[in-house]
Design a protein that fits this description.
473 residues, alpha+beta, five-stranded antiparallel β-sheet
Amino acid sequence: MEDTETSDTRIENQADRYRMLVEESSDVATIIDTDGTMTYVSPAVTRVLGYDPEELAGNSGYEYVHPDDREKNAEAVEAVLETPDEPRTVEVRFKHADGSWCWIEATMRNRLEDDVIDGILLNSREITERKEQERELRKLAEEYEALLNNAEDAIFFVDVNVSDDDITFEFDRLSPAYEQQTGLTTEEVRGETPPDVFGEQAGAELEANYHRCVKAREPISYQEELEIDEEARIWQTNLAPVLTDGDVTRLVGITRNVTDRVERERQLRRQKERLDEFASVISHDLRNPLNVAQGRATILDEQTESEHLDPLLRALDRMEAIIADTLTLARQGETIDETESVSLTDLVGKCWGTVDTDAATLEITDKMTFQGDRDRLRHVFENLFRNAIEHGGTDVTVRVGRVDEDTIYVEDDGSGIPADRREEIFEPGHSSTSGGTGFGLTIVKRIVEAHGWTVSMTDGSEGGARFELVMSQ
């Protein structure tokens, strides 16, 4: 008799401890029988799901589980019934008292042999926020994969390993564009250091930039020569650190093959150097003897009468004009680095005053200001004015104004230029007058393009030639 009472007392004490633990727990404790009927629900269900425990007790738990999740919920119950010693955890959507669906994580344990519980014990917690975060992370991961797989620039990832104040770098992943442009693959480089992949010298140069990024703890940009093949040698790279708990644990690099661009820049520099040499030869080696020839011809004209002297002086003057225009052409086509605010009225007025206009008339129809290189633009308008007078006659009317905020026009009422010749007028050496050098409109085009603008020619409003300078691209 005493043994029975002692056993009953022990069971009762155990039940009291279970009850106290369940009621104090923040998780929802539920006991279900083998067919899923809820025989007990802890008070925490009110705080988590909005129900009174009595509302749920005696009902089938499956009725409150989302239809799409009932199968996996049933499979978990079957699993704990078949293997009582192994708990099962399942994530399902459970109907809240307000009618909405919330995610819960339930861990099931088989307690059918427990005299107190006599069923399957579920410890459940609400994980809606976690599931939302997981959904957002999946979305970000999908976007990240889409970006990585479709980016035209090559992307690479480098793991940063720190031990005993020593930092090592190991490649982790390459984007498809990187693999395509270099011939390297993720499988080949994963876990390898830069010297392993690119050799000691090139690898050391790469690691120097990686160390610089780790030390700066912020993105860096640099250009590097890394000879992957004959067509991919020069790369423009942006490298950014990834910080975990305040430490740089990863580097993400975006690099672009700029070999063609750099080669063009180098070629342009070489061409500019040759052009400078050419301009120097014209300026000194040709102009000096020309000035001597002009001086001697002038003296000879004063001392001697000859029918050959006038043609000689005109030829020498024409040579001087060609040299001046050639120097302007060589020096004015360089890219504009600095601009200033320019008044169209002021600029045009000064240019008109430096040109031999004879009886020609200037009309300025609009006022406007724009950004440009004032000195170089004087060559543009002076040459356009000379062109109008040369082709339209000494009594031509020249009109300057604007089409819109980004377009300036210069037109005359002369005879105009035939449509089939408008493409060639900007070519070097083209001139329809016997005294022209053929460089005037070429100079106009080069200076306009150096500003990043365009120039075109069409019919004027009164039948002459009209040039339009478009400042926006």
